[in-house]
Design a protein that fits this description.
This protein is α/β, with parallel strands linked by helices and 244 residues long. The protein has seven helices and eleven strands. The longest helix is centred in the C-terminal third of the chain and has 14 residues.
Protein backbone atom coordinates (compact mmCIF):
# COMPACT_ATOMS: atom_id res chain seq x y z
CA UNK A 1 0.00 0.00 0.00
CA UNK A 2 1.37 3.39 -1.04
CA UNK A 3 0.12 6.75 0.29
CA UNK A 4 0.69 10.13 -1.40
CA UNK A 5 0.38 13.54 0.28
CA UNK A 6 -0.30 16.61 -1.90
CA UNK A 7 0.36 20.10 -0.48
CA UNK A 8 0.93 23.69 -1.65
CA UNK A 9 3.35 25.74 0.45
CA UNK A 10 4.16 29.42 0.73
CA UNK A 11 6.43 30.65 3.54
CA UNK A 12 5.25 27.96 5.94
CA UNK A 13 8.50 27.42 7.83
CA UNK A 14 6.61 27.73 11.12
CA UNK A 15 4.38 24.68 10.64
CA UNK A 16 6.50 22.72 8.16
CA UNK A 17 8.73 20.86 10.66
CA UNK A 18 5.59 19.59 12.40
CA UNK A 19 3.94 18.81 9.06
CA UNK A 20 6.84 16.73 7.75
CA UNK A 21 7.32 14.93 11.08
CA UNK A 22 3.66 13.95 11.10
CA UNK A 23 3.17 12.80 7.52
CA UNK A 24 6.49 11.00 7.21
CA UNK A 25 5.20 8.45 9.75
CA UNK A 26 2.73 6.95 7.27
CA UNK A 27 3.17 8.53 3.81
CA UNK A 28 5.35 7.11 1.08
CA UNK A 29 5.69 10.41 -0.76
CA UNK A 30 4.95 14.07 -0.03
CA UNK A 31 4.43 15.97 -3.26
CA UNK A 32 4.91 19.67 -2.45
CA UNK A 33 4.27 22.56 -4.82
CA UNK A 34 6.14 25.53 -3.38
CA UNK A 35 4.82 28.99 -4.16
CA UNK A 36 8.00 31.10 -4.24
CA UNK A 37 8.84 30.73 -0.54
CA UNK A 38 11.64 32.88 0.90
CA UNK A 39 11.63 31.83 4.58
CA UNK A 40 13.45 28.48 4.40
CA UNK A 41 10.42 26.42 3.39
CA UNK A 42 11.95 25.33 0.08
CA UNK A 43 15.18 24.27 1.75
CA UNK A 44 13.36 22.16 4.33
CA UNK A 45 11.29 20.49 1.64
CA UNK A 46 14.29 19.81 -0.57
CA UNK A 47 16.20 18.21 2.31
CA UNK A 48 13.47 15.73 3.24
CA UNK A 49 13.87 12.23 1.75
CA UNK A 50 10.14 11.68 1.21
CA UNK A 51 9.44 15.04 -0.45
CA UNK A 52 9.18 15.55 -4.19
CA UNK A 53 9.55 19.32 -4.57
CA UNK A 54 7.92 21.11 -7.49
CA UNK A 55 7.55 24.79 -8.31
CA UNK A 56 4.08 26.31 -8.14
CA UNK A 57 3.79 27.61 -11.70
CA UNK A 58 1.65 30.68 -10.97
CA UNK A 59 2.06 34.09 -9.31
CA UNK A 60 -1.50 34.69 -8.30
CA UNK A 61 -1.40 34.54 -4.51
CA UNK A 62 -4.48 32.89 -2.95
CA UNK A 63 -6.91 31.78 -5.65
CA UNK A 64 -9.24 28.97 -4.57
CA UNK A 65 -10.53 28.36 -8.10
CA UNK A 66 -6.99 27.92 -9.37
CA UNK A 67 -6.10 25.65 -6.45
CA UNK A 68 -9.11 23.47 -7.18
CA UNK A 69 -8.28 23.24 -10.88
CA UNK A 70 -4.71 22.30 -9.96
CA UNK A 71 -5.78 19.37 -7.81
CA UNK A 72 -8.28 18.18 -10.41
CA UNK A 73 -5.38 18.07 -12.86
CA UNK A 74 -2.88 16.39 -10.55
CA UNK A 75 -4.69 13.74 -8.54
CA UNK A 76 -5.21 11.44 -11.58
CA UNK A 77 -1.42 11.29 -11.99
CA UNK A 78 -1.35 9.13 -8.85
CA UNK A 79 -3.36 6.36 -10.54
CA UNK A 80 -1.42 3.15 -10.83
CA UNK A 81 1.29 4.46 -8.49
CA UNK A 82 -0.51 5.10 -5.20
CA UNK A 83 -3.40 3.44 -3.39
CA UNK A 84 -4.46 6.50 -1.37
CA UNK A 85 -4.11 10.26 -1.83
CA UNK A 86 -4.47 12.98 0.80
CA UNK A 87 -4.71 16.64 -0.22
CA UNK A 88 -3.98 18.96 2.70
CA UNK A 89 -2.79 22.44 3.63
CA UNK A 90 0.45 22.93 5.59
CA UNK A 91 -1.49 23.55 8.81
CA UNK A 92 -3.80 20.52 8.41
CA UNK A 93 -2.90 17.26 10.14
CA UNK A 94 -4.96 14.18 9.27
CA UNK A 95 -4.82 11.98 12.35
CA UNK A 96 -5.87 8.43 13.18
CA UNK A 97 -4.43 6.15 15.81
CA UNK A 98 -3.15 3.66 13.21
CA UNK A 99 -3.47 5.42 9.86
CA UNK A 100 -1.94 2.77 7.62
CA UNK A 101 -3.96 -0.02 9.21
CA UNK A 102 -7.13 2.06 8.86
CA UNK A 103 -6.55 2.65 5.17
CA UNK A 104 -5.53 -0.94 4.49
CA UNK A 105 -8.78 -2.28 5.95
CA UNK A 106 -11.31 0.33 4.83
CA UNK A 107 -13.68 -0.51 2.01
CA UNK A 108 -14.67 3.03 1.00
CA UNK A 109 -13.23 5.02 -1.89
CA UNK A 110 -13.38 8.28 0.09
CA UNK A 111 -12.84 8.39 3.84
CA UNK A 112 -14.38 11.35 5.58
CA UNK A 113 -12.57 13.30 8.28
CA UNK A 114 -14.05 15.24 11.16
CA UNK A 115 -12.71 18.77 11.52
CA UNK A 116 -11.22 20.42 14.60
CA UNK A 117 -9.78 23.91 14.99
CA UNK A 118 -6.89 23.60 17.38
CA UNK A 119 -6.33 26.46 19.81
CA UNK A 120 -3.56 27.84 21.98
CA UNK A 121 -1.17 30.73 22.48
CA UNK A 122 0.52 30.55 19.10
CA UNK A 123 2.17 27.46 17.66
CA UNK A 124 3.77 25.30 20.36
CA UNK A 125 7.52 25.24 20.78
CA UNK A 126 9.04 22.47 18.71
CA UNK A 127 10.59 20.00 21.15
CA UNK A 128 10.84 17.11 18.73
CA UNK A 129 7.41 15.63 19.44
CA UNK A 130 4.40 15.59 17.16
CA UNK A 131 2.39 18.82 17.26
CA UNK A 132 -0.70 16.89 18.38
CA UNK A 133 1.29 15.41 21.28
CA UNK A 134 2.34 18.88 22.44
CA UNK A 135 -1.06 20.49 21.91
CA UNK A 136 -4.10 18.21 21.43
CA UNK A 137 -6.62 20.93 22.40
CA UNK A 138 -9.31 22.15 20.01
CA UNK A 139 -12.94 22.94 19.24
CA UNK A 140 -15.27 21.35 16.67
CA UNK A 141 -14.94 22.73 13.13
CA UNK A 142 -17.62 21.21 10.87
CA UNK A 143 -16.46 23.26 7.87
CA UNK A 144 -13.13 21.40 8.05
CA UNK A 145 -14.75 17.97 7.97
CA UNK A 146 -13.30 17.46 4.51
CA UNK A 147 -13.35 14.49 2.15
CA UNK A 148 -9.69 14.69 1.12
CA UNK A 149 -8.59 11.09 1.76
CA UNK A 150 -9.44 9.01 -1.32
CA UNK A 151 -8.41 6.33 -3.77
CA UNK A 152 -7.05 8.06 -6.90
CA UNK A 153 -8.68 5.63 -9.36
CA UNK A 154 -12.06 7.29 -8.74
CA UNK A 155 -13.53 10.43 -10.27
CA UNK A 156 -13.74 13.06 -7.54
CA UNK A 157 -14.59 16.75 -7.45
CA UNK A 158 -14.91 19.34 -4.67
CA UNK A 159 -16.33 22.80 -4.16
CA UNK A 160 -14.09 25.77 -3.38
CA UNK A 161 -11.72 24.99 -0.54
CA UNK A 162 -12.46 21.25 -0.83
CA UNK A 163 -14.97 21.51 2.02
CA UNK A 164 -17.51 19.26 0.29
CA UNK A 165 -17.83 16.92 -2.67
CA UNK A 166 -19.87 17.91 -5.70
CA UNK A 167 -20.66 16.52 -9.16
CA UNK A 168 -19.30 13.06 -8.33
CA UNK A 169 -20.56 9.86 -6.79
CA UNK A 170 -17.76 7.84 -5.16
CA UNK A 171 -18.28 5.32 -2.37
CA UNK A 172 -17.94 7.54 0.71
CA UNK A 173 -17.43 6.20 4.22
CA UNK A 174 -20.45 6.30 6.49
CA UNK A 175 -18.20 7.03 9.47
CA UNK A 176 -15.59 9.70 10.24
CA UNK A 177 -12.58 7.64 11.38
CA UNK A 178 -10.01 10.37 10.69
CA UNK A 179 -9.62 13.67 12.52
CA UNK A 180 -8.49 16.77 10.64
CA UNK A 181 -6.53 18.88 13.15
CA UNK A 182 -6.31 22.45 11.86
CA UNK A 183 -3.56 24.49 13.54
CA UNK A 184 -4.55 27.89 12.21
CA UNK A 185 -6.46 29.80 14.90
CA UNK A 186 -3.89 29.62 17.67
CA UNK A 187 -4.88 32.63 19.77
CA UNK A 188 -5.66 36.22 18.83
CA UNK A 189 -2.16 37.40 17.90
CA UNK A 190 -1.34 34.37 15.76
CA UNK A 191 -4.72 34.50 14.02
CA UNK A 192 -4.44 38.23 13.36
CA UNK A 193 -1.03 37.78 11.71
CA UNK A 194 -2.20 34.83 9.59
CA UNK A 195 -5.35 36.67 8.57
CA UNK A 196 -3.33 39.69 7.48
CA UNK A 197 -1.00 37.49 5.41
CA UNK A 198 -3.90 35.77 3.67
CA UNK A 199 -5.80 38.99 3.09
CA UNK A 200 -2.75 40.56 1.43
CA UNK A 201 -2.25 37.55 -0.85
CA UNK A 202 -5.87 37.23 -1.95
CA UNK A 203 -6.84 38.78 -5.29
CA UNK A 204 -3.35 39.89 -6.31
CA UNK A 205 -4.32 40.05 -9.98
CA UNK A 206 -8.00 40.92 -9.79
CA UNK A 207 -8.00 43.05 -6.65
CA UNK A 208 -11.02 41.09 -5.44
CA UNK A 209 -10.66 40.38 -1.71
CA UNK A 210 -14.08 38.76 -1.43
CA UNK A 211 -12.73 35.25 -0.92
CA UNK A 212 -10.81 36.50 2.13
CA UNK A 213 -13.74 38.18 3.85
CA UNK A 214 -13.07 36.38 7.16
CA UNK A 215 -9.45 37.62 7.07
CA UNK A 216 -10.42 41.26 6.69
CA UNK A 217 -9.07 43.58 9.43
CA UNK A 218 -12.66 44.72 10.08
CA UNK A 219 -13.85 41.18 10.74
CA UNK A 220 -13.41 40.60 14.45
CA UNK A 221 -15.37 39.71 17.54
CA UNK A 222 -15.93 36.67 19.79
CA UNK A 223 -19.05 35.72 17.81
CA UNK A 224 -17.33 35.99 14.40
CA UNK A 225 -15.87 32.57 13.75
CA UNK A 226 -12.20 32.51 12.68
CA UNK A 227 -11.56 36.10 13.78
CA UNK A 228 -8.79 36.96 16.29
CA UNK A 229 -11.22 37.51 19.18
CA UNK A 230 -13.03 34.30 18.32
CA UNK A 231 -9.74 32.39 18.37
CA UNK A 232 -9.08 33.69 21.86
CA UNK A 233 -12.59 32.93 23.09
CA UNK A 234 -12.46 29.40 21.60
CA UNK A 235 -9.78 28.47 24.13
CA UNK A 236 -12.38 28.60 26.89
CA UNK A 237 -14.42 25.85 25.17
CA UNK A 238 -11.59 23.59 24.00
CA UNK A 239 -11.21 19.90 24.77
CA UNK A 240 -8.59 17.21 24.26
CA UNK A 241 -9.44 16.16 20.72
CA UNK A 242 -7.49 12.90 20.79
CA UNK A 243 -9.51 11.54 23.68
CA UNK A 244 -12.79 11.76 21.74
Amino acid sequence: MRILIFVITHNTADTLPFFLRHYETFADEISAFDDHSTDGTREMLAAHPKVKLRDWPHKTGIDEDLFLAHWQEWYPKARGHFDWVMIVDPDEFLWALEMRALLANHGAEVIRSIGWNMVGDGLPKDDGRQIWEINPIGVPAPVYSKSVVFRPHIEINWNRGKHALENCNPLVSSDYPIKLLHYRYMGADYTRAKNAKNYARCGLLSGDKGAAWSCSPSYDGPDKEHSPQWAEFAKTKAVNVLLL
